[in-house]
Amino acid sequence: MTELKELYPVGEQPPLGYVPPKMHAWLVRPERFGEPMKAWQVEVIDTPEPADDEVLVYVMAAGVNYNNVWAGLGIPVDVIGARNKAGEPERFHIGGSDASGIVYQVGKDVTHLKVGDEVAIHCGTWSRDCPWVQSGEDPMYSPTFRIWGYETNWGSFAQFTRVQAHQCLPRPQHLTWEQSAAYMLVGATAYRMLYGWAEHALREDDVVLIWGGAGGLGSMAIQIVKAAGGKAVAVVSEDDKFEYCQNLGAVGCINRKNFDHWGMLPHWKDTVGYNQWLKGVRGFGKAIWDVLGERRSPRIVFEHPGETTIPTSIFVCDTGGAVVICAGTTGYNATVDLRYLWMRQKRLQGSHFANDQQAKGFNDLVLAGKADPCMSRAFTWDELPYSHQLMYENKHPFGNMAILIGAPDFGLGKKIAEPAGLTTIEPTAEIREREDFYRAPLHPVDEQKPAEAAAVEDTRLVRELMHFGVISCSQGTPVDEVAQRMTDYHVHAIVVTDADGYAVGVVSQTDIVLARQGRSAAEMAGILAGAIMSTNVVTCAPEATISDAITLMTRNRIHRLVVVDARSGKPWPVGVLSMTDIITYGMRSAPLSGPAMSMSPAALAADIYEPMAPEPNLAELGIIEDTTLVADVMHQGVVTSPTGASVMDAARQMLEHGIHAVVVVADDGRAVGVVSQTDVVLARQGRTVEQAADLKVGDIMTPSLVSCTSDRKLSEAITLMTRNRVHRLVVVEDQAGKLMPVGILSMTDVIRQFFSRN
């Protein structure tokens, strides 16, 4: 008789139905949040017990998804802290939201599964006791919905995983264990995106534009569209991905690097930038027609990049079509020209994973051999952190990845031959070239363009106006040191460089403030710049034109660009171009003179309001209680401008005071709007010097002033700033029914409060 063990080595399978009391698991703890190679470590822990509606599965293999890169970083959500607040006691996280395995224990209420069943597991969980679920409505809308292995604990990165019984689906017997673990999360997500919205459900002959066609999500979507008889057009980043996508069933591909209009929309006031964007997006639309060999627009746009691509997706989507999005891999602040949305009755639809029926729908395609897992690489148990590090560094291969957990070797688990229908498709015949210039169905911008606004481009070069030198830090710099550096140098953001000095990211004041939320001082002290930095650094070359630089800044809603020398093939930071530089030096042809022109370089480069108090000592981290009010942190006094003042006067005020914006006030002193440096620069675009000189502050101001009162909680003010992507709030006071400006709250003020001594 085989002796039963308390703990089995990884790769040694216990007797069927025997659950040892201990198990090996890869897990994260809060004290080691960071990059995957640091965060994920093996520990021996107690094996969990399944609830009445749950099963315990011996994991043979697990899938690799980006959600557990986030879990390891502790950003954007501290999943351990969130569960602890909800009452769960475990101070660790076992990740893994895809798996294949064998049922070893069954809860007493489970009737459709038995010990020994081989299953593939989907990651959607919800409470069976939820009234919404009990009513038969889509459980994806239930307040109890959670992603297993990310928002819940006990994922697939352990010898045993605890899952709700409804998550288990039959494992395809023509696949290996690792292949069976690679496809469900991305496949079911893609299936809901294409079939989950009745009016815009995938139909035969539909044209579907698929972003990231060679990725895990895109590769599933291509196959789903092919199985439905649709026409998938894949967008990829390299020509060498064309054949891969076409073999999956795409009718053709587009290399996004052939276009340069990506990012947030240029402001509609920026006629030069907007017209440049229109030219780029129409060219992209023509590329879709070229792939299809006919002038058809996509009825469905399969989205997940988000910030950089949404403007294009909305534009090229067919009238009455839908853009369906499930992520924001390039950022979350997407911009939309609403005219193209409402006047052509298009739909922007969010989508998140899938319900049981949709997960089964995709699994049925795999069982029938109509969809392949597209597993490009599998890893051993010991390589689990490395597999996620590759994903973190964006060095992972095409398709999907998996990790051996209980399976002792690669290639096991396949019991039957591949279905006859599982074949690859050869690349399509030569795609017919067309000379037709792509035209959107509607061009409201052209129709509404003022007659006098000629598209005057500023052909001066960035190197003529930029200031040289960059304030930087390494990825391993503690965040409190980064905050100190911002305070010392009076800047809003710091460039993050690698060991060789190349730019790899940027940390802003907003990043630091958001990282501070929900963390104690001790927890914050362990956070490094690399964990919170944004990797999509907006850069330009010294040889770029000022018009191009302005468009980049307005499209991305930023005040400065990192100027890089990329002759080595990597971004070497050499300087910064700010809106202040453009206003100071770039508008000399306009009537701008006086004290502002004699300001020191330090003042010209200032990114913040001048401090109202001595610089804080940031050596110790303070804790911000929820009771902190705006009045406790704000500084008194506001720089204002009347509506009738000239734009040049407003620009001069900004330079004199070292600020980015002035509050616009009516004759009675109440706040009615704001004029920013960006507004001033855009007012000059497309206008002659004389036309710009005649403009008044009231002509260009933004009337939607982002403000708050001094009795608001600081946390509420931070939410207002981050939601509106602004660095400061105007603090107003109701005086006889009029909102009178009395002070300013800036991110700099918040940083000082967060990192000052108690």
Features:
758 residues; alpha/beta; Quinone Oxidoreductase, Chain A, domain 1; Rossmann fold; CBS-domain; 3 domains; 20% strand
> What proportion of the residues form beta strands (DSSP E)?
15-25%
Per DSSP E runs of 2 or more residues, the count of β-strands stands at 31
Specify the CATH class of the largest domain: Alpha Beta
Reported CATH architecture of the largest domain: Roll
Q: Rounded to an integer, what's the Rg over CA atoms?
A: 28 Å
- Given as residue ranges, the uncertain stretches (5+ residues, pLDDT < 50) are 423-455, 588-624
Helix content: 25-40%
Distance between the termini: 66 Å
Q: Taking all residues together, what is the mean pLDDT?
A: 85
Number of domains: 3
CATH topology of the largest domain: CBS-domain
Tally of separate helices:
29
Look at the helices and sheets and give the structural class: alpha/beta
Envelope shape? globular
Question: Would you kindly provide a brief summary of this structure?
Answer:
It contains 29 helices and 31 strands.
What does this structure look like?
- The chain is built from 29 helices and 31 strands.
- The protein is an alpha/beta fold and 758 residues long.
- The chain has three domains: 22-183 and 373-404, Medium-chain alcohol dehydrogenases, catalytic domain (Quinone Oxidoreductase, Chain A, domain 1), CATH 3.90.180; 188-353, 3-Layer(aba) Sandwich (Rossmann fold), CATH 3.40.50; 462-754, CBS-domain.
- Strands 3, 4, 5, 8, 9, 16 and 17 form a seven-stranded mixed beta sheet that branches. The chain has a six-stranded parallel beta sheet with strand order 12-11-10-13-14-15, with helices on both faces.
- Helix 6 crosses helix 7 and helix 17 crosses helix 29.
- The protein is globular.
- The termini are far apart.
